[in-house]
Amino acid sequence: GLLHDIGKCVDRNTEGPHALIGYDVTKRFRENNVVVNAVGSHHEDIEMLSPYAALVQAADAISGARPGARRESLEGYVKRLEKLEKLAQSFEGVTKTYAIQAGREVRVIVEHDRVDDAMADQLAADIAAKIQQEMEYPGQIKVTVIREKRSIAYAK
Q1: pLDDT tens, position by position, 102-111
Q2: What pLDDT does residue 63 have?
Q3: Are 47 and 93 within one domain?
Q4: Going by C-beta distance under 8 Å and a sequence separation of 6 or more, which residues neighbour residue 71?
Q5: Which residue, 7, 13, 80, 156, is the most exposed by fewest CB within 10 angstroms?
Q6: Domain boundary pick from 41, 65, 89
Q7: How much is the pLDDT for 65?
Q8: Which residues of the chain carry a pLDDT beneath 70?
Q9: Does one domain contain both 33 and 91?
Q10: What CATH number is given to the structural domain containing 85?
Q11: Which of 45, 65, 85 delimits the end of a domain?
């Protein structure tokens, strides 16, 4: 597993997919054949010959899907956060939304006189369901609905 992306480290003048370059490198250095196959087959460039190859491929996919693992263009990142906020803003009673934690959480401010506590719980679930239906994202997104009433008095 540790060597599966070794082909990315080779001179940029070497052409071909990094999995096949890694296959050649590990073979040249006489690595165990199971390891050589796992490196070469983790993107299905060659046939998988052992269960270890399948495990390396699965681990690579899981690792690559975690938040922050892949580079995202600034424009794509901003659009994703804006879409998240706009989606949450589309619900009745919502006054403001904030996508935080690099889009892994959305905070939703609601009008306290239009949304009671039970409605706030349901709203959080509804927003989460709509995010699941309409967006693609790695991991999970936490939805926090905030309903606040402030009472202020002054002693003179």
Answers
A1: 888 999 999 9
A2: 77
A3: no
A4: none
A5: 156
A6: 65
A7: 66
A8: 12, 65-72
A9: no
A10: 3.30.300.30
A11: 65
